[in-house]
Write a structure and sequence with these properties.
Number of helices: 11
Structural class: mainly alpha
Distance between the termini: 64 Å
Radius of gyration: 19 Å
Largest sheet: none
Number of strands: 0
Oligomer: single chain
């Protein structure tokens, strides 16, 4: 029985590494095309997102314990940066294209984001060749990359700060996903699939040219704003009983007291994430 189990684990690891290698090769090809066609901002965003997620996954695969403080600060910084970026860089673009349709687009993005996240739970009841959390993360990475590509493809003058802020959550997301996956005996290289998915999808969707209609552009940019706001709010650290942060507590003692202390870190990290974007914007402008 032990030999069968070991053989199955080895096959799983080999398949995971093959998928990771193929995903990385696809990203290399896509970013080479991006450079050749002058899409330098998407080239940078793609590789920064890949590096952040891959490095965080590599660290998680070699960490025996999940530190609650690491999750709170990682999620908080990313959420604060994303909320600020969406409000400052995307929302004005959506409303500027068309006030009403831009607003409807924001509402649509928030509702679709919520619906996709909620219905995504059905993946847990399906027999997938990929770990459920990694499958969800891959779907999210491809969706986010597609939206980033459409935005930069149609508004190439946008600064790179927006894209970097949007993918800022990839590090903590990759860390948390690999911690769960490796805990079940999985190999950390599985994270290379969603890590590469961001850039591949972004570069492919940058080829889509939106109509000149202000209403259409308002809906598209509003939708992007709503989706990223939903993702950002989903990453706000939840220091409650039963939350991921609570499950990561490795200390003995009163959980309520520890969570109360982490709530202060959650507020501080989100505020610092937003402040970092503000400071970056001041430097750029």
């Amino acid at each position: 029985m032990a030999d069968v189990t070991t053989d199955g684990t080895e096959r799983r690891t080999t398949r995971t590494r093959q998928i990771g290698a193929a995903s990385t090769a696809a990203l290399v090809a896509a970013t080479a095309y991006a450079l050749a066609t002058g899409r330098t901002k998407l080239f940078g965003i793609a590789w920064i997102a890949f590096g952040a997620m891959a490095i965080a996954g590599w660290i998680a695969g070699r960490t025996s314990d999940t530190h609650s403080g690491t999750l709170v600060w990682g999620y908080g910084l990313a959420a604060g940066a994303m909320i600020t970026s969406a409000a400052v860089f995307l929302l004005p673009q959506a409303i500027g294209q068309h006030p009403a349709y831009g607003g409807f687009g924001v509402a649509l993005g928030l509702l679709v984001g919520y619906g996709a996240h909620t219905l995504g739970h059905r993946l847990s009841h399906m027999d997938l060749p990929l770990d459920r959390s990694l499958a969800e993360l891959t779907a999210h990475a491809v969706s986010a990359g597609a939206i980033i590509g459409i935005i930069y493809g149609n508004m190439p003058d946008l600064g790179i700060l927006l894209g970097l802020s949007i993918v800022s959550h990839k590090g903590p997301a990759g860390y948390a996903a690999v911690r769960r996956f490796s805990g079940d005996g999985g190999d950390w290289t599985a994270i290379l699939l969603p890590a590469a998915g961001v850039g591949v999808a972004a570069i492919a969707s940058s080829l889509v040219a939106l109509p000149a209609s202000g209403a259409v552009r308002g809906v598209v940019f509003g939708f992007a704003t709503g989706v990223f706001l939903h993702v950002a709010m989903d990453f706000l650290p939840e220091c409650e009983i039963g939350s991921e942060v609570h499950e990561s507590l490795s200390h003995e003692g009163d959980a309520h007291t520890l969570l109360d202390r982490l709530r202060l870190h959650a507020v501080a990290s989100t505020a610092l994430g937003g402040l970092a974007v503000f400071v970056g914007w001041l430097v750029i402008v």
